[in-house]
Amino acid sequence: MFFLLANMLVLGGIEELGWRGFLQPRLQERTSVLTAGLLIGVLWWVWHLPLFFGHQNFSLEPLFVLQYTTFVIGASTVFGAFVNATGGRVLPLMLIHATTNLGALLQGFGGVLDGTALVPLVAGSGLWWLIVISLVGLFGWSMVPQSEHGLSS
């Protein structure tokens, strides 16, 4: 529990203040939730690029790069929809971000997925994209239900 809170408030989760708290609403002034999520996903990937040069859990192997790229951009798109559905609240998303980091730690430190790249690609990245496709299919480019409260745009 302590690690989860630390991850949320100090490590990865704190990034959401910038990505979804600051950048997402500004991008959405000019574009859809989907496009904003995709753009932030690319920036988020570039932000993490230094991890590929020296972090023990990152590898330049093509399958790992594909898995990580699809995971980050897919998760970013879903995160953007989530923050819109919660009226711009970032704190719940910080917790979600922290829990996604726990999965990576389990994979990299002898967890049940240690040493497998295909399972995270299909189960991890694939599930994010399944959510993206479902949200776009249900609600269009806004990716969230429209309501009288103005939670999305």
Characterize the largest beta sheet: strand count, sense, and whether it forms a barrel.
Answer: none
Radius of gyration: 15 Å
Strand content: under 5%
Structural class: mainly alpha
How many distinct domains? 1
End-to-end C-alpha gap: 35 Å
Count the helices. How many? Answer: 6
What shape does the CA trace take? globular
SS elements, strand count: 0
Residues in helices, as a percent range: 55-70%
Q: If you had to describe this structure to a student in words, what would you say it looks like?
A:
There is one protein chain. This protein has 6 helices and no strands. It is mainly α. The chain has one domain. The protein is globular. The protein starts with a helix and ends in a 14-residue tail after the last helix.
Summarize the structure.
This protein is mostly helical and 153 residues long. It is built from six helices and no strands.
